Amino acid sequence: MTDVGFTAPKKATESRWQRVVRTLLYGDNVDRNVKAKARVGLAIIAFVAVYGIIAGKLVMFALISEDHGGRRSVGQDAIATARPDIVDRQGAIIATDVKMPSLFAEPRRLIDVDEATEMLTAVLPDLDAKDLRDRLSSGRGFAWLRRELTPAQQREIHRLGLPGIGFLTENKRVYPNGPVVSHLIGHVNVDNQGIAGIEKWLDGQGLAALHMAGLATDRLQKPVELALDLRVQFALRDELAKARDKFSAKAAAGLMLNVNTGEIVAMASEPDYDPNNPREANDPTRINRLTTGVYEMGSTFKALTIAMGLDSGRMGLNTTFDARMPLRYGKFAINDYHAQRRVLSIPEIFTYSSNIGTARLALALGVDYHKAWLRKMGQLDRLRTELPESSEPIVPKRWGELNTVTIAFGHGLSVAPLQAVMGVAATLNGGLLIPPTFLKRSPEEARAMAKQVIKPETSIKMRYLMRLNAEIGSAKTANVDGYYIGGKTGTAEKVVNGRYSKTKLLTDFMAVLPADKPQYLLLIMLDEPQATKETHGYATAGWNAAPTASKVIARVAPLLDIAPRFDLPNAEQSILVSNRVAR
Amino acid sequence: MMRILNILVIAALVVAAAYVYKIKFESTLQAERVAKLRHELRRERDAVAILRAEWAKLQAPLRIQGLAERHLKLKPVVSAQLGNFDNLPMRPTPAPPPNDPIASIIAPAPPQETTGSIGIPGAPR
After folding, report:
1. Would the CB atoms of A557 and B79 count as touching at under 8 Å?
2. What ipTM did this prediction achieve?
């Protein structure tokens, strides 16, 4: 049988047997010629299709192949995503990313688990052998063995030549200044996600979303500029640590605010922690006392009360209040620490820090006025900044006259110290309440978001009072030669078991510099300072917080470009008279 | 005629194929170079980051203060040590040389040397 498909079958020569087979196979009366042609056509189409697909695939390969090189290298790094650098206002690095190799295993591809365990523990002795063996024999596709190797360790492990063991470079967050900028900056976890401070705020700013999309792998992100000045921060922290040692205080905290922009130039709370070792941060004694804690601020709050009186328009600097007798309220008697037993004018109330006088002043304006004033000054609502940690002020539920009396001199209302600083800054900077920020901000931006809460004239009177207090009052110990500072001390008794304790004090001091044209407001706060020989047995703010502030100012004023001036006239001349403000 | 045309077309095809192959080969080379450079850039950038971190660590105020306290006898600046040019006193004008005619005849005085500028009080600066 030859050419069955292509030559026409000759029926005549066909045997009977062949005919039967043909009828069974093709049916009767079928022209096999036509059928064969159709088959050839089908084969052609099939071949064209197959070759077409091959050609198309080739074109695709040619187009895509260029991506392969790039994709391979991306796969090798950046599991923990990159974060932008954080720099201070001068450009010094506060936080940055460094690439570090991490060790992983693909247990399925391992040949000899025992050998691998032995060799790896030889290079990394602190790796637990049993745990390592379990992980290697788990049969999973991927397992981390150790994050953040040193380059030397990486080289040694690489030289072992183990199959199924590899490295991934990861971003590790590094804080070159260690504990100096701890609470403010916060820290990250092992996956480079911010879990506290500015780092957490950064994640909330869309960085987390970028991470999810896998886009934040490169370090080409713009650095974040803080308002912080590293040099000032360091000086402040250094002096706080010394003061904490000297007065055996439980804690010391300090904050420096630019009163015209609301920028926080330095913020430290001792004891602090090293963000490179965030485990320390869990210790409850290491909280940030300036934003996370709330405190009764003591006499520094009198600045707000007196500003209220002066701003009400019903009182001037010459208004007097009777401070001859203790103020009796039910079973409570309000007394003065430096009792004068006479009628005091407002500057005298401020410089003698008279509780009776301030309380009478607040009562003269009434409870509702006082409450509305404190709300306007932002003392009754939770203050939110970039830092995720914040706490609500503790406001008395039923606010009666007794509450107004005590709150007037800083007891009975607990606020975050940062909040109090914001309020006092508003009384000094010309009457603008500016929400404080940790990020760099220009004076124009600050002015756009500021709220005028008091008259500029009241603000000038407040500057006068602050300076006067440094000339004749309790802030004398804070004076620094050449810097025209003003200030207010505050000593609050801490509440122990529901009663005010005479021995456990919280002292604070607010200093404004320079007092005639305020630029910065400094807060120093000491928790339970002890009396020493040098302080003649006193533990009030004038003996510990104010001298600490003086040391800080002497160190930071040159850094903040404040030129020393000598032989300036007294407060009345340089502030009231030169601004043409009547008493 | 037809045969020559066929030969020409085949030749053109071969040339075109060779040319395309050459372009493709070159582009692969270039792509490899780009990938290599990109990799190098990344490595350099990482190295720069490490150096910057190290530099920041070295010039951290905490470390500098520790070193200064251990090795230097410097003390913090006090405000009285800071000044500006406006507070600088004027340099006094030198006294005129004593006029002694006999002495100048015996030994002529050496010429006066001026080592710095002398401010004139009241002149604009």
Report:
1. yes
2. 0.70
